Records
---
Amino acid sequence: MGKSYPTVSEEYQKAVEKVKRKLRGLIAEKNCAPLMLRLAWHSAGTFDVSTKTGGPFGTMRFKSEQAHEANNGLEIAVRLLEPIKEQFPILSFADFYQLAGVVAVEITGGPEIPFHPGREDKPEPPQEGRLPDATKGSDHLRDVFVKHMGLSDSDIAALSGGHTLGRCHKERSGFEGPWTTNPLIFDNSYFKELLSGEKEGLLQLPSDKALLSDNVFRPYVEKYAADEDAFFADYEVAHLKLSELGFAEA
């Protein structure tokens, strides 16, 4: 489906560029790229294609959405971003949180995700329970990403590679540890580690292993492990789609 992006003012566009620079500084200083990517994903991943509710529309600013079990720890991201947001009241929270995700990928060596401003903030958060559960397999992944968000199998596989950044924290998710040996670099090592089997100190969630046991997902894992450019190309498409769910629909 084509997109029809809204036109924003020159002042708004300038604010976007300035905020990008401020975000680069913050993320470099605090080493918080994984947290910012998670904030952007969890903001967007609540979209439901049938009811057109949820999605990347700034509702993570509400304490009630931060309190959803899947969002444990994201109040830290919101708090870290507050001083920048206060300097740029013109920017919607919706654009701001998605821009933080774009910068997080770029500053850690990942692909440059196109960014189209103009998302409006919704007045209330979506109901809890729309985000993926890491303890479940490929049927659940398809239920969340394909049936509810309207994404594809290749989007699921590519977005899973975002786990190249960051780690799990026991107090937030019940799991502990990073997926890769360098959790602050965006590359294709998530797929390489997945194929090389479990290692002490590195994490493989049930939802990660599901990519290996599923005969549609596994070829993507093998392709991305062998070809980082192919992973980056597909990731860019998938991240853009996720960040614009329900936005600018023609």
Note: The first strand starts at residue 167 and ends at 168.
---
Amino acid sequence: MPGLIQESPFETITVKELHPTFGAEVSGVDFQNVSEEQFKEIVAAMAKYGFCVFRDTGLDDTAHVRFSERFGELDNIRRYLIGGRKPRYDLYELFDAGNIDAETGSILDPESPRSHSNRGNGLFHVDSSFNPRRASYCLLRACELPPPGNGGNTDFADSRTAFDELPEDLRDELLSHDYVGAHSMAHSRKLGSPAFFEDVDPTKGTMTRHRIVQVHEPSGRMNLYIGAHLHHIEENGKETPNSWDLVQRLNQHATQKKYTTTVEWHSPSDMIIWDNRCVLHRAGGGTFEGKYRRDLRRTTVHDNSPTAWGLNPQDSVWMGFNAQAKPKHAGAVGV
């Protein structure tokens, strides 16, 4: 039952469930000295719950990256550092998930190009589904937070239970077809801010392909691999009839209130780890935007499962920015 400390097979961690079907807050972890036994239990908790919240970890940037490396090979931001763009951090493995201007250190103007691109993060999505090799885990850590009551929470959706509870007709359709999703970061940016990105055409850029229905190997459960980056659905290399209708139906089904929950950030060094192969997430808005600093930093772990590369060649060129970007888009991510 959510909110209760669970009797469980875990010996080195304590788990409090956050939702009837997924999500947990984990305590008892000493992040300065995580034993191999405890790390295995964290991984096991991730397989069961899909995402786990850790309070007051005490991690700094270096320790955050070092701990993340225990999960596998990390992605980095180098491909985005073009046109004189500067990183905010010394460590290229850290992705900026906050609202701080890298050049000035001030709060981003809500109407700035990067703020417009960030609106796509407010839609339920899977990190890195637009990459040839998808992501497994993401580790998001708070460094600076708005005052309580000003928003900036992070929401999650349970895409495994969403698969389990598909309407019968939709479940039968998915299981009788080999549907492949075509993913584009430019697509989610345009969905998040359609007027600002009205002249961006995602179909003119590179898309990556991953199957819609997959087995989540750590748990053995079926999963819907969908989200806001999903532009259309294909079968045998061709877009399916009524593809966009199906994309919308799947995303709407998986993000119903009964499959979602919200995590409030309490204090700097709180961290959430989630598995992109079995949950969706989104950044929550609020009155903090343009007013209070929200500095969150994320590491992203490359998936190493047999389906990590989807239908994408392993020598694929990893895209940073879409070549369609116009001067007005300068500073936006993903176009």
Note: The longest strand covers residues 135-144.
---
Amino acid sequence: MEKQLFCITTMASLHIAVLLTIGVITILVVRIIYVLFRSSKPLHSKSPRSLSTLIVLGSGGHTAEMLNLLYVLQTERFKPRYYIAAATDNMSLQKAHVFEDSLLGKEAFEEVEGAEFLQIYRSREVGQSYITSVGTTLIAIAHALWLMIKIRPQVILCNGPGTCIPLCVIAFLFKILGIRWSSIFYVESIARVRKLSLSGLLLYKLHMADQLFVQWPQLKEKYPRAHYVGRLM
């Protein structure tokens, strides 16, 4: 009798566990479909309030292109601004400081919210072995998670550096879990004429970018969901 009762209890517990698992998976699938559908729509915020914006900088040409974009951005609409660059890239943050200083005169008669300048660990340095990069990648992901929890941006702007990937992945997971909705805008570098960079390709294939912009018409033909905006440099 006790054996039969034990078997019935065990079967009932397994049945409940299976139903709960199916329920959770169903909710996640529905949520992912909703996120992908909503992410494909243009950002239309009717609220007069400004949008906290995370700007990912990369060494060399990436930062120069990003700053060119920021010069034509409605900066009063996108603030406070948070600039992030790799921990080994001090030059990009210096350029961002110069850009923000140039806005002080323009925004002198407006309520100005200060910008923040942050650094993030790289997943892998140039020339680093793949074995040791496993540990640094885990550290970089943990650091990116901490930064995203701290900043909780409404908009993410990036244009190619690999440091944007862990940030965008975490932002996408936050969307699915309903923690925070961050619209991801990715502008492919003008140097990419025939194919997307690895960062751009990942965000495109995994549908993580809300809007992905390219600067060459042949890229638009190859990647139909991308938006061709002409040369921005």
Note: Residues 2-39 form the longest helix (38 residues).
